């Protein structure tokens, strides 16, 4: 069996993935060390489990996170195969290191994490920490990475049971966050945990999808040739001409299909209006346009 060597472009792409995964992990770790841990806020995932163990016993969060994921990765390699685990293993090791590093950097000489925003600023710390976590995870996921934890549990269960990944991850996170009540005997901590989870999810979705926000135009106009020429020349976007039939008039019409970045919407509207003010335009949002001139197809 002949083994094909990876191309230079593939190696560069992989290297970029690891660089961005590292940047994302730095943001995630710093959020925990500077904002979430000092204010005793938890959230879902194995980092959340590690945080609960730390709040209850003082056992370092990074080692709980590492040990739990080491066990999960052992099962994941056997069940899901080694390809699943390469970047995940890297992320787990680096996140363990960064959690240790930033706690050592942030904590005072007595080892107690200081409340940077001042006492009583739990909610603000919750928002800032969650936003940084979501931003970091978004970068990791955009680079085909994973921080392990409940992702592994969900992937393993999904392999044998007809349960969606999202539903499994949500169920795990709800159980983890709710369990912090038994540590603090305070429902405020549980609420902070769910707020953190919500903000992380919101920021994560924004980071993952914002770069891919594109629009699709369907343009109906007698001046379709001029409009197509100007769109191709001025906006550097491709135009596809479709043949159609107006059912009311029973006349043949030409339909222009244009895919563009959202930021180019105003430019295209102005261009069409200048050429044919009576043109009929339909605009719709699309997430994820792949191919020449847009994002490259990236799959795990």
Please give a quick description of this structure.
The protein has helices at residues 8-36, 45-57, 61-80, 86-106, 122-142, 150-160, 165-179, 181-184, 187-210, 224-235, 265-275; strands at residues 213-220, 239-246, 251-261, 280-287. It has 300 residues and is of the alpha+beta class.
Describe the protein's architecture and organization.
The chain has 300 residues and is an alpha+beta fold. The relative contact order is 0.12. It has helices at 8-36, 45-57, 61-80, 86-106, 122-142, 150-160, 165-179, 181-184, 187-210, 224-235, 265-275; strands spanning 213-220, 239-246, 251-261, 280-287. It has 11 helices and 4 strands; from the N terminus they run H-H-H-H-H-H-H-H-H-E-H-E-E-H-E. It has a 4-stranded antiparallel β-sheet with strand order 2-3-1-4, covered by helices on one side. The mean pLDDT is 84. It has 2 domains: 8-210, no CATH class; 213-287, 2-Layer Sandwich (Alpha-Beta Plaits), CATH 3.30.70.120. The two termini are 23 Å apart.
Main attributes?
4-stranded antiparallel sheet; 60% helix; 300 residues; single chain; 2 domains; Alpha-Beta Plaits; alpha+beta; 4 strands
- Number of strand elements: 4
Q: What is the gyration radius calculated from CA atoms?
A: 25 Å
Estimate the global geometry from the Cα principal axes. Answer: elongated
pLDDT < 50 runs, ≥5 residues:
none
How many structurally independent domains?
A: 2
Helix/strand structural class: alpha+beta
From the N-terminal CA to the C-terminal CA, the straight-line distance is 23 Å
Determine the number of helices (DSSP H or I, runs of at least 4 residues): 11
* Residues in helices, as a percent range: 55-70%
Q: Outline the biggest β-sheet.
A: 4 strands, antiparallel
Strand arrangement in the largest pleated sheet: 2-3-1-4
Q: Roughly what is the average pLDDT, rounded to an integer?
A: 84
What's the SSE pattern?
HHHHHHHHHEHEEHE
| Residues in β-strands, percent | 5-15%
